[in-house]
Write a structure and sequence with these properties.
This protein is α+β, with helices and mostly antiparallel strands. The chain is 27% helix and 26% strand. The strands form six sheets. The protein has a four-stranded mixed beta sheet with strand order 1-2-10-9.
Length: 377
């Protein structure tokens, strides 16, 4: 069973401070501690889960590794790196963003592991780089084939020998009455060979730990959740087994101006009261540069303008989204006495015109009046 996200377990955001982590853990510990759970196994499991999450996230180095590589970055059973081992790799679920979405899977086979584990690398991108595409260099800690023994796991001058238990098949057959059961050979663990004199560099595993630098070409239009697959750049398996794949998981940083929703972009722009009342022309930012937007006189606040084709070009369909700009009236601040007097004169002049100048306000007043009249009656 896969582990829950540590931040989700503690109920805190990913940017939570140390104090927030500590408070969240104390709250869960008080609720689910074995001394308080009266033998409730589910509650005790929650306590252990919370303790594991807190112990990891309170350590700056472990937290950095977890933020970058997920559970695999801090779990020794997964190689101490950030690979995903087991029958279902990342490729089984996602594939790459160029069409191999559901087809890339772990290839099983008889006689042991068919290839090494797939790896995942979390890559954060600015919106601009995600929209236009970029090339990024990343450093990946992983296992590589041992150079000393060329991946065989055997010491120089020796070589693996055929397993006598299974005859090199990697499987043994157990007969019980009418039933015959085939299982992995306990002697060679499914490899079909045994190493009597292991390589000193890799202790017989056929692989050693390295950190390699890779160049990742990110296509234009990627979004949070997309993955770029680098075939054969995953973790090398034991005893010369070919490596798995590396999946670069994309996530977008928050942008100071735009919010992305699929292929569309959204922004909000403060506009003066005078511009909305009298009309004018605004300069709108886009990812391609500046654009001009005409505002009609008497435009109301919260109006949403659509700029066609100014969004993001989809990495899959090639369709380009739109840019939506919502304008909001900005109330002036730090007024001088003269400005206050002028505004008061303007407000008084609106009152003289009745509902002609403020139809929405007058309509609201009429609704309130009818509401209280109905209450009385």
């Amino acid at each position: 069973m896969s582990k829950r996200d540590y931040y989700e377990t503690l109920g805190v955001p990913r940017n939570a401070s140390d104090d927030e982590l500590k408070k969240a853990y104390r709250r869960l510990a008080m609720k689910h501690h074995p001394d308080r759970s009266d033998g409730d196994e589910a509650s005790e499991a929650r306590f252990k889960e919370a303790k594991e999450a807190f112990e990891t996230l309170k350590d700056p180095q472990k937290r950095a590794a977890y933020d970058q590589f997920g559970h695999a970055g801090v779990d020794p059973s997964m190689g101490g790196g950030f690979h995903s081992s087991g029958g279902a790799g990342f490729g089984d679920i996602f594939g790459d963003i160029f069409g191999d979405i559901f087809g890339a899977g772990r290839r099983g086979g008889r006689g042991g592991q068919a290839r090494g584990s797939d790896l995942r690398y979390n890559l954060e991108l600015d919106l601009e780089n995600a929209v236009r595409g970029t090339e990024v260099k990343i450093r990946v800690p992983t296992y590589q084939s041992c150079e000393t023994c060329s991946g065989s796991g055997a010491k120089a001058g020796s070589s693996p020998t055929t397993c006598q238990t299974c005859g090199g098949h990697g499987q043994v057959r157990m007969q019980q009455g009418f039933f015959s059961v085939q299982q992995t050979c306990p002697n060679c663990r499914g490899r079909g060979q045994v190493i009597s004199d292991p390589c000193e560099s890799c202790q017989g595993q056929g692989r050693t730990r390295h950190t390699k630098t890779l160049s990742v070409k990110v296509p234009a239009g990627v979004d949070t959740g997309d993955q770029v697959r680098l075939a054969g750049e995953g973790e090398a398996g034991e005893h010369g087994v070919p490596p798995g794949d590396l999946y670069v998981q994309i996530s977008l940083k928050d942008h100071p101006i735009f919010r992305r929703d699929g292929d569309d972009l959204y922004c909000e722009m403060p506009v003066s009261f005078a511009t909305l009342a009298l009309g004018g022309e605004l300069e709108i930012p886009t990812l391609d540069g500046r654009a001009r937007l005409k505002v009609a006189p008497e435009t109301q606040s919260e109006k949403l303008y659509r700029l066609r084709g100014k969004g993001v070009r989809s990495v899959r369909s090639g369709h380009t989204g739109d840019l939506y700009c919502r304008i909001n009236v900005e109330i002036p601040v730090n007024l001088t006495q003269e400005q206050k007097d002028l505004l008061q004169q303007l407000e008084d002049s609106f009152g003289e015109g009745g509902s002609r100048h403020n139809p929405r306000a007058q309509g609201w007043s009429d609704k309130i009046k009818r509401f209280f009249e109905d209450l009385v009656s």
